[in-house]
Design a protein that fits this description.
Elements: H1 3-8, H2 63-75, E1 83-87, H3 101-109, E2 112-115, E3 124-127, E4 133-134, H4 141-148, H5 158-161, H6 166-173, E5 190-191, E6 201-202, H7 223-238, H8 242-273
Antiparallel strand pairs: 1-4, 2-3, 5-6
Length: 275
């Protein structure tokens, strides 16, 4: 696997240069902490476990949470991160946010997508369409690294790339705190004991703050709630067929129970006839 593929599966919120608003940089950039090593080892913080609606064999995604999570991704995360394995049309599919076709068309059109060449051989930009994947905000990895100091990872599979999945994302976003006396935080760094890759030191400041994203459905837009919503949205991005798998599993269990019952009574019948 190439280094580029490796970076894709390393998760984090990448910080922009000084002066860029935090609200424009929800860079789930766990990878940046590795470039700011701690002078003393930090204790690993346990993950905060959430009673997710999609947990368990009968779990399903919360459609409202997925829609709110998309809004957090759009307004904050997408400034630095792409989701190259998720297409706009996926937002309308069953088992996901289930936006209408008109809503998906409007969402896609807000993005600029590079296309071409045209009849004159030139590349051009056009509004996004349902067939397009979520684009990167940078033309290439070199441009991203020059702006952020590292290449921000694609978020398509990030919930599957870290042990703990949605719990990890939620815990990281809510894990910022003051560093212990024995942990040195270098200039530009922040302390988050959930981020064990960087020994608790992460370059991204706390990315979500109360009131940062407006929710049209009246849900309290606290940092904790936004963390839950975007964690569930990224879980869906990584597991878009989760509900279908759960339904298939239930059907298989029912079939096996029925088959076991038929075999049981058939066996009893066979043995009773022999006596």
């Amino acid at each position: 696997m190439t280094q580029k593929m490796t970076n894709t599966f390393r998760f984090g919120f990448a910080s922009k240069l000084a002066g860029v608003a935090v609200s424009g940089a929800l860079a789930l950039g766990l990878f940046l902490g590795a470039s700011a090593p701690a002078q003393a080892a930090a204790a690993e913080a346990p993950l905060k476990h959430v009673a997710w609606s999609f947990s368990g064999p009968f779990g399903t995604y919360d459609r409202d949470a997925l829609r709110r999570g998309y809004k957090v991704y759009k307004e904050v995360c997408s400034t630095c991160h792409a989701m190259g394995m998720v297409h706009f049309r996926n937002l309308a599919e069953k088992g996901g946010p289930e936006f209408t076709a008109a809503e998906v068309k409007a969402i896609a059109s807000e993005y600029k997508v590079k296309d071409g060449p045209d009849t004159s051989g030139e590349m051009f930009e056009r509004p996004g369409e349902g067939k397009d994947p979520f684009p990167s905000p940078y033309p290439n990895d070199e441009a991203a690294a020059a702006s952020l100091g590292a290449v921000p990872p694609d978020l398509s599979l990030i919930a599957k790339a870290r042990e703990g999945g949605a719990d990890y994302i939620y815990s990281l976003l809510n894990g910022y705190e003051e560093a212990p006396a024995n942990v040195h935080v270098p200039a530009g760094g922040n302390y988050n004991p959930v981020f064990v890759v960087g020994s608790g030191i992460i370059a991204m400041p706390k990315p979500l703050n109360d009131g940062q994203v407006d929710y049209a459905d009246g849900t309290p837009n606290t940092a904790e709630q936004m963390s839950k919503d975007v964690a569930q949205f990224l879980m869906w991005a990584a597991e878009p067929k989760l509900e279908q798998r759960h339904r298939l599993g239930l059907e298989v269990v029912i079939y096996l129970i029925a088959l076991a019952g038929i075999l049981y009574f058939a066996t009893r019948k066979v043995w009773s006839d022999q006596h």
